[in-house]
Write a structure and sequence with these properties.
Elements lengths: L3 H7 L3 E2 L3 H6 L2 H11 L12 H21 L8 E4 L6 E5 L1 E3 L4 E8 L5 H19 L3 E8 L5 E4 L4 H20 L32 H31 L6 E4 L2 E5 L5 E5 L2
Parallel strand pairs: 1-3, 5-6
Antiparallel strand pairs: 2-3, 4-5, 6-7, 8-9, 9-10
């Protein structure tokens, strides 16, 4: 949680943590944020919200865990940063990794939320954090349900950034002029990976790797059912083999158990 001093520094500013709401297309939340910013209503008491408190409690542990697992130091934890050129923009950084110039924001999210939805929603927050400290890369470190935290890099293009900064400036103007913000559609960053549909392209327009991958795709398709049957048979054989059997032979097949108790199935001469 933010200290009182950090909260005072953030006063009258549009912070990175507000950007997901500005980009979300959720008019009710946007109006609520605007009313909080102009002092019409008190900000929500986050001390009573379980997800927020759980994330606050776990943040240091998650960052320490990731630092140990990757071997790269995470510094500048919970540092308040003013944007270098826009006076009304600020961010509180969860952590920063000097190794690859990456700002990292830690999130604890419910398992029913998809990773795509999570990364899309918080992308703007990370992009503003990047701008505030001048980092070349940004990422979310997500504990999804109770799973081990995993890092997801945030990608954005020029169009997304242009829209984001335009919306932030417009929202700040609404705050300063006491004008309610207008409804806006949801904006998400572009997909990280491109889609290629070879069926929709003449072979003369295929990329150079397509002619090699298509025969392998056909082999995969033709052998998929047999592969599934093979896996099912393997699992069933292992389940049916009694625990006290160390070697089983039939026809040209052999089932053997190693010292750790694991079974393997091979063709034998």
């Amino acid at each position: 949680m933010l200290t009182e001093a950090q909260q005072r520094l953030r006063e009258y500013k549009t912070t990175a943590s507000q950007v997901p709401i500005i980009m979300s297309g959720d008019t009710d939340k946007l109006i609520q944020l605007w009313r909080e910013r102009i002092g019409e209503i008190e900000p929500e008491d986050l001390g009573t919200r379980w997800p927020v408190q759980l994330g606050s409690f776990c943040e240091t542990f998650i960052a320490d865990w990731h630092q140990r697992e990757t071997g790269h130091e995470l510094i500048r934890r919970q540092e308040f940063v003013q944007h270098p050129s826009i006076a009304y923009i600020s961010a509180t950084i969860d952590c920063y990794r000097p190794f690859d110039d990456t700002v990292i924001d830690v999130k604890v999210c419910n398992a029913w939320m998809s990773i795509t939805d999570i990364t899309n929603y918080y992308a703007g927050q990370v992009r503003v954090q990047q701008a505030c400290i001048g980092a070349s890369r940004g990422a979310l470190l997500i504990m999804h349900g109770s799973a081990e935290p995993r890092e997801y890099e945030v990608y954005a293009d020029e169009d997304y950034d242009k829209e984001m900064w335009g919306r932030i400036a417009a929202f700040q103007l609404c705050v300063e002029t006491l004008t309610p913000p207008a409804p806006l559609p949801k904006i998400v960053p572009p997909e990280q990976y491109r889609s290629v549909d070879l069926e929709q392209l003449p072979q003369s327009a295929w990329p150079n790797w397509a002619h090699s991958i298509v025969p392998q795709l056909l082999v995969w398709s033709e052998t998929k059912i047999a592969a599934d049957q093979h896996k099912l048979a393997t699992d069933t054989i292992k389940a049916l083999t009694p625990d006290d059997v160390g070697r089983l032979s039939f026809s040209d097949l052999g089932v053997t158990r190693n010292r750790a108790g694991a079974l393997s199935i091979k063709r034998v001469a």
